[in-house]
Design brief:
Blueprint (H helix, E strand, L loop, with lengths): L7 E8 L4 E8 L4 H12 L7 E5 L4 E3 L6 H4 L6 E6 L1 E7 L4 E8 L4 H12 L7 E5 L11 E2 L7 E2 L1 H4 L15 E3 L4 E4 L2 E8 L16 H8 L19 E6 L13 H16 L7 H19 L5 H7 L4 H12 L4 H8 L8 E9 L9 E8 L2 E5 L8 E4 L4 E7 L4 E8 L6 E7 L2 H15 L9 H20 L1 H4 L1 H4 L4 H6 L2 H13 L6 H13 L7 E7 L7 E5 L3 E5 L6 E6 L3 E7 L4 E6 L4 E5 L4 H15 L10 H8 L5
Parallel strand pairs: 1-5, 6-14
Antiparallel strand pairs: 1-2, 3-4, 3-5, 6-7, 7-13, 8-14, 9-13, 10-11, 11-12, 12-13, 15-16, 15-21, 16-17, 17-18, 19-20, 20-21, 22-23, 22-28, 23-24, 24-25, 26-27, 27-28
Helix pairs in contact: 6-17, 7-12, 7-16, 7-17, 11-12, 12-16, 18-19
Length: 645
């Protein structure tokens, strides 16, 4: 090292990747770029383009190369690191798929999320963010890597844990999984696919229900969007979670958002199953039925290449009309089916045990010949060629009574018709006969001809539920988690597995048949309709009540003061009538000036900066009007960054 002059001083730089420490003579007016050149030259020939100076003491990157050392505050006692800006991280997507990918940890977290969403194929990145994981996957919970044979598979085959892992799906996406298990987007690999078990951390198997404090603790795990991941302690190969943070979804277009819809559906599904969002028992069965419809359609034979080619010939006008029907909440498949000429229906007939049910009826079951004709059930006595009774099944109430262990298959049917009412019980000799007739009854009750092309799908739905009950019945302790994929543990404690399966099958019978993507969208819409949808919980203490914990919910349009025990709404402050909100960063206290009066509080479950970011983020989301306008990043930082913005 040459002798130093009066203006020069020694600077120590450590390179973690090679474990080497170098000392250089520098001047205070020397630029950061010149120091980087000195370090790279001293370490020898190598590609150093991804390396930058990191200041551990101040937790900041020195990436503004034109600034001088004195401008950044670097002195002779400063210890700098020369390290990579891109670190390989394990990123868990909202659907619990884990992907190893190189992430730029030198930029702000908001910019990192933008990069990740572009790599994965998710639009509207501003609705998502990153959070820490309380339970990192390891060998104990069997995190594993998937290698999916010798051909590329659409990424949506991995976006649904209940779909067949190696089955292709017809959803449009540019993301695929290569034969070596690489996540491919737009022809480029972004990393290896790793996946944890379908049941997250055994939550569904434990007798555990999240309390308000548990939910508030989870919201304290979000990373600060205004700081880099590296400054928040993220290191190489760390495990982080990508989640939808702001529950206001702009321009959710099924024609271009296949990946986004699938990811959002999975996050909604897990929030219902883990009871992160409160819902009634009836709503739970509705969600289970929609989930089962998604699984059912995914298990059916997929389109051939020729069918896909012919389907792709649809005009742009047809696609625009379908998109309009989606936005209006209607099913384009149902609309097209009603407009198309009716196809001849198959005639379903056979001998069934029939018994009328009534308060004063003691007659035993008798065997009659029945046949379906469109939506009517015909009853024939003896060898008569003409039906003696015709029952209109449109709008009928169906109640299956199934016990696969005892081989008991019964269907109760209740109709209300001006000509002939019926409240009867049908008994079937086998599961195959039960599925065939139940499918016909379900179609007729929805005003669809029994035996039409959708009959095979209905039969498949019945068979899958019976198979699930058989599997669970063989070993309830080990296989009971299968039902846990559909309903929360709260329902599992109240009712038997057989009763739950029958309830889900009953609710599924009232659903319109639709594709995988449409079923997921219907699930998301039902999720958005819940009373406490989108509430993020924080434990706070109001000024004047510092010894008492209060529960605050932050939603897309309001702040809600909640009862910590019942979660009942005690007081609401809407953003539209909020004048200002300020934070005293020294004492970590937020003051809100509202039309109904002002109030101040501190947050004990998370850093107050995170709560401030939620409020500012939702206000930013409400200001998005033009779907084609790019994200105003500066405005986002201004509303969410606080003193750092």
């Amino acid at each position: 090292m040459p002798p130093k002059s009066a203006k020069e001083w020694e600077l120590s730089v450590f390179t973690p990747e090679i474990g080497a420490t170098k000392t250089f003579l520098v001047r205070s007016d020397m630029g950061i770029g010149e120091v980087v050149m000195k370090v790279a030259g001293a370490l020898g020939p190598r590609d150093w383009s991804d390396y930058a100076l990191w200041w551990p003491e101040r937790k900041m990157w020195l990436t503004r190369l034109r600034l001088t050392l004195v401008a950044e505050g670097v002195q002779s006692d400063s210890k700098l690191h020369f390290t990579k800006m891109h670190k390989v991280l394990q990123v868990q997507l909202p659907d619990r798929t884990i992907v190893k990918m190189p992430i730029d940890v030198s930029v702000k977290c908001f910019a990192t999320v933008e990069q990740m969403c572009k790599m994965v194929g998710i639009r509207r990145y501003e609705e998502l963010s990153l959070m820490r994981c309380n339970n990192r996957p390891d060998e104990n919970n069997q995190a594993l890597t998937y290698f999916l044979g010798r051909k590329n598979v659409h990424v949506n085959a991995l976006l649904d844990p209940l779909m067949v892992r190696d089955r292709q799906t017809p959803e449009q996406t540019t993301s695929t999984i290569s034969d070596s298990g690489e996540y491919i987007v737009a022809g480029q690999s972004i990393g290896a696919v790793v996946r944890s078990e379908d049941v997250p951390d055994g939550i569904l198997l434990d007798k555990w229900s999240p309390s308000s404090h548990d939910k508030a603790f989870i919201n304290g795990l979000w990373y600060d969007s205004s700081r880099s991941l590296y400054s928040q302690g993220v290191e190489e190969n760390d495990f982080i979670q990508l989640r939808f943070k702001y529950y206001t979804f702009l321009d959710l277009d099924p024609l271009v958002d296949a990946v986004r819809v699938s990811q959002l559906y999975e996050q909604a599904r897990w929030s219902v199953l883990t009871e992160d969002v409160d819902c009634t028992e009836e709503e739970t069965y509705t969600f289970a039925a929609l989930q089962f419809q998604t699984q059912l359609v995914a298990s059916l034979p997929q389109q051939t290449a020729q069918q896909k080619a012919s389907a792709s010939d649809d005009s742009d006008l047809d696609q625009a009309l379908n998109a309009l029907q989606f936005s209006l909440g209607t099913n384009p498949h149902e609309a097209s089916a009603s407009a198309a000429p009716s196809e001849p229906s198959q005639r379903i007939e056979g001998q069934l045990k029939f018994q009328k049910v009534g308060k004063l009826t003691l007659k035993s079951a008798k065997v009659y010949r029945f046949a379906f004709q469109d939506c009517s059930l015909l009853l024939y006595k003896k060898d008569s060629a003409t039906p003696s009774t015709r029952y209109n099944i449109r709008g009928a109430e169906l109640h299956p009574e199934v016990d696969v262990e005892k081989d008991r298959y019964v269907l109760r049917v209740s109709t209300s018709d001006a000509d002939e009412d019926m409240e009867a019980k049908f008994t079937f000799d086998s599961s195959g006969e039960f599925c065939r007739w139940l499918a016909a009854f379900r179609m007729a009750s929805r005003n669809k001809p029994a035996g039409s092309p959708g009959h095979s799908e209905e039969v498949r739905a019945c068979e899958m539920f019976l198979e699930m009950q058989r599997t669970v019945g063989k070993n309830p302790k080990e296989n009971g988690s299968l039902v846990g994929h559909f309903v929360p543990h709260r329902i599992l404690k109240k009712k038997s597995i057989q009763k739950i399966a029958v309830q889900v099958l009953t609710f599924h019978g009232s659903l319109d048949r639709c594709s995988v993507l449409e079923s997921k969208l219907a699930y998301i819409r039902a999720w958005e309709g819940l009373q406490d949808f989108g509430l993020s919980y924080f434990i706070i203490k109001f000024e004047g009540y510092r010894m008492k914990d209060e529960l605050l919910g932050v939603a897309y349009n309001r702040l809600v003061r909640l009862d910590p025990q019942t979660h009942g709404h005690m007081q609401t402050w809407r953003y539209s009538t909020m004048r200002t909100w300020d934070i005293n960063w020294e004492i970590k206290e937020m003051k809100v000036d509202h039309e109904d009066g002002g109030f101040s509080f501190t947050c004990s479950s998370a850093d107050l900066k995170l709560l401030h970011e939620f409020i500012g983020g939702y206000i930013f989301m409400s200001m998005r009007k033009d779907v084609h306008e790019p994200v105003n990043v500066e405005l986002f930082y201004k509303l969410t960054g606080g003193w750092e913005g």
